[in-house]
Amino acid sequence: MLATLAFYVFSAVLIFSAAMVIVVRNPVHSVLFLILAFFNAAGLFILLGAEFIGMILVIVYVGAVAVLFLFVVMMLDISFADLRKGAVQFIPLGLFIGGVLLFQFYVLFQSWQIAPSAMLNITTPSLSGEEELTNATQLGRILYTDYVFAFQVSGLILLVAMIGAIVLTHRQRAGVLRQKVAEQVARKPSDVLEIKKVETGSGVE
Amino acid sequence: MMMELWNLYGMQTLMMLLHMVVLLVSVLLGVAYLSYFERKIMGAMQMRQGPNTVGPFGLLQPFADALKLISKETIIPSQSNRAVFVLAPIVFTTLALLAWSVIPVNAQWVLADINVGILFLFAVSSMSVYGVIMAGWASNSKYAFLGGMRSASQMVSYEVSMGLVIVTVILCVGSMNLSDIVTAPRPWWMQILLFPMLIIFLVSILAETNRAPFDLPEGESELSGGFMVEYSAATFVLFFLSEYANMILMSAITVVLFLGGWLPPFGIEALSIVPGVIWFVLKICLILFFFVWCRATFPRYRYDQLMRLGWKIFLPFSLLWVVVVAGTLIMMDAVP
To answer: Among partner residues B120, B145, B156, which is closest to A55 by beta-carbon distance?
Structure first.
């Protein structure tokens, strides 16, 4: 009973905050609502018994991705009121695209079939079988056996994306002073200091 | 119907509430006396007296401070974003106290003994950055905004190496349940392997809690108080309280991950006459002393030095060490 109640609370707040993301005027508020939505989605995962995925959702999306989102939205000085000015005239186009997407999803799910070999790998996220396994263990067993190729390839794609982002944004700027720690540490007094005996009344050359 | 519900959940809920209240009161008392502890230690290190007027040995000083702060007027700047401005300290405090629900204080003494305890802690501690960013943005002030931005990037950077440290501990222990992490056997070579990670973790928690020498978000010399400039009275108390609660929490996490939680030190059986809670609290005090010691000793880092330490030194080293630890575990045939 409590689980059902929790489910309805989480889903209601999730749908409400997801709607608020696109409704509110202030972009920072909409990112904050997005975070609330992530949080409730994590709650739903935990209700399903998939506590590992729920926690990872909070760590990755709430703890890292949304922070950078918020960071960028706060730093950008865009007048969002200007961006919204012409929004009304695009509503028919938006509705059209949405309708096409909905139709495609409908067609897709009507004819959706899961390959028999993949059916074997479907496990319930909760504890199953005789031995009690946490779902981190279960996920690991599937990821590193049957899906190891897909797993490694997705890792490689992420690596390429990361390198790409660094290459695209990195630029060498001239005239920037950089601290070279190794050089500073390696500097000895004998390299830079010279002690001279100065005669009275003569001064240093 | 009501009777049924009461039988099902009533007693359980009451006991749960009682446990929560006891835990929260002890954390809050801990925060009060941590501020006293800090001022006394810093006083001793700088050859001063520290608080000594209110009550015997100044023991009532924290309560005098709290009363003074709460009785002041709460000022909300007129140009600020009211809702977010008030929400920020509430979020910060809630998160700081929420994490305590999974900390095992003694064998079986834990509110929620969940499978993914360490992930929960990591998630909650990585979310506390929102309190700071929201405060910085909502204040609508340059200093507060700069402080919030600094803190956001600092916390995100040091979380990466903290995550890798946690990964190595999980590798050695084979469980994400905090009680299991404490009780899992650790041979001597494993402890030696984990020692560098302890050092990295200690430095990272200094950065994660915005403490000296990484207290740039509130650097008073250039930002006059950082993200907290605009906060006064009760809202400031909430920030202050949760910052100290976070320090205690991070010390508790260190104790659970590396120092063997409630178990007596060095595995000496005779010492287990002393209850586990006392060992737990003593170990937390040890780490807290480290926090205060650092604050009294080190000058503040420059911002680029902080980022360099996080990204160019800690991250590569901890990545390498994850591989070394995993390799050693396989070599010793000790994979749990």
So the answer is: B120
